[in-house]
């Protein structure tokens, strides 16, 4: 949009900098500045923009295949401490599709055949992995006793759900 604005003004013999064009675009979107608009993830992306420029991915949301709703809720809600955000079924006697979340991490749980493969893995970067591990250990959940493993890339705690899906919670090693 900033490039189009500059081009349109240039045709009218009005020259502005690219930075000024960005600020005008931000004002058109109700933001105090281009930096605010970009930080709020509302910055427009042109259809003709080169691949990778201006592109930003949103939140990743792994889908975990489940086979028993009660056991899944015991693991994800009671043990891991996630919150049940919502549940969905296409009709009576249909499998569950649900969203659970905690501290910025969102997972989808699906009983639908084909949505995900049992035994999958998700790698989650986080802060506070040691405190999370202490919290889980204190629950003394008989099916899972997660430990910490010091890897070259960070401190990792792996939990395996009752359906053999693994979640690797990793706190990155600080750069030196």
Radius of gyration: 23 Å
Shape: elongated
Order of helices and strands: HHHEHEEEEHEEE
State the share of residues found in helices, binned by percent: 25-40%
- CATH architecture heading of the largest domain: Roll
> Quick one: how many beta strands?
8
Biggest sheet architecture: 4 strands, mixed
Domain count: the total is 2
Map the helices and strands.
Elements: H1 2-11, H2 18-28, H3 34-39, E1 63-65, H4 69-79, E2 83-88, E3 97-102, E4 105-110, E5 121-125, H5 129-138, E6 148-151, E7 154-160, E8 166-172
Parallel strand pairs: 1-4, 5-8
Antiparallel strand pairs: 2-3, 3-4, 6-7, 7-8
Helix pairs in contact: 1-2
Provide the descriptors you would attach to this structure in a database record.
176 residues, alpha/beta, 2,3-Dihydroxybiphenyl 1,2-Dioxygenase, domain 1, 2 domains, 5 helices, 8 strands, 27% helix, elongated
Please provide a written account of the structure.
The chain has two domains: 56 residues, no CATH class; 110 residues, 2,3-Dihydroxybiphenyl 1,2-Dioxygenase, domain 1, CATH 3.10.180. A hairpin with a 2-residue loop joins β6 and β7. α1 crosses α2. The mean pLDDT is 87. The strands form two sheets. A four-stranded mixed sheet has the order 1-4-3-2, covered by helices on one side. The protein has a four-stranded mixed sheet with strand order 5-8-7-6, covered by helices on one side. With 176 residues, it is α/β, with parallel strands linked by helices. Helix content is 27%, strand content 25%.
